[in-house]
Amino acid sequence: MFLLTLALHSLLRWVVLIAGAVAVARSVTAWRSRTAWTAGDDYAGWWFVIALDAQLLLGLVLYLWLSPMTQIAFQNFGAAMGNAVLRFWAVEHISGMVVALALAHVGRVRIRRAAAAASRHRTAAIFFGLALLAIVLTVPWPGMPAARPLFRIP
Predict the structure, then answer these.
(1) What's the structural domain count of the chain?
(2) Would 75 be classed as within a structural domain?
(3) Would 113 be classed as within a structural domain?
(4) Domain that holds residue 110
(5) First to last CA, the chain
(6) Under 8 Å CB-to-CB from 43, ≥6 apart: which residues?
(7) φ, ψ for residue 11 (rounded to 5)?
(8) Is residue 86 part of a domain?
(9) Per-residue confidence at 153, pLDDT binned at 50, 70, 90?
(10) Is residue 132 part of a domain?
(11) Is the pLDDT confidence value at 83 over 80?
(12) Are 126 and 11 in contact (CB under 8 A)?
């Protein structure tokens, strides 16, 4: 169960990153060119948030029940804070992802409340851009102490 969930979480990472990049690119491009807000702009943000929600659900299953890393960290949380890899999995990764999710959701709400197209595009660019930055900074990329492979196949 752990390996399957981890593989799905790893695969969904790419969906989140692509959806986030599309949402940010659309919003920045439309903001700079002063174009109208379209259903495509709305769907780009919606898919980004939906992918993030699904990713968080899988991540929480790993974090709370399946991951041996967090189980080890929870046994002695104080000691885990002294280990860079355990600290990454117990605190840094989940914190960064929850911040990203919050930014994306707040951005979606603020976009719906904005009246002008320029405000919507600017809000989308800022919130989705910050969410994507938080994700990129807290993904366990190769070369990091807590590195994971780019593609995980069970």
Answers:
(1) 1
(2) yes
(3) yes
(4) 2-138
(5) 10
(6) none
(7) -65, -45
(8) yes
(9) confident
(10) yes
(11) yes
(12) no
